[in-house]
Design brief:
Length: 164
Amino acid sequence: MSSDPRSSDFVYKDYSLEQLDNWISDALNNELLTAQEIYDAIIKSVKDSVKYHKKELDRSKQLLCLMSENKSSICEATNDDWIDFWEEVSYPKEYDNLQYTEEEMNSMCDAAADKEERDRCREYNLREAEYYNKRALIDAEHKKQNKELEEIRKSGGFEWTPGS
């Protein structure tokens, strides 16, 4: 692979990862930087990117809403929808049976280095459990609505449905 963008065998993905590796190495080898400062800089960069893309998404949604004859559901998305979308985690099928039990999660927290880290670990586990509980409720409601919709379709639709 060439690092020259004009080369025929240049792969941008590989180039980006190589630059990331160089940046991390440079930061780690700088004795004036602490691990916390490096971590904070990475987190700030990701948050800035999310903030930028959210702003662009909001602008695009506004334009789409103005262009839509009937206001579609995208016009009605809330901040919670945004958070749900970005915090949703999907894992490949092969990871389905690799979920940790609550007991395993607690033992990992107990093995953490200090009390503050254990507390953060537990707090994270509680938030994750709350997320999965909410996700299960949403999925169940969605399944119920899909079933109801299917019944309506089978019975010929609503009176205002074209063709019924």
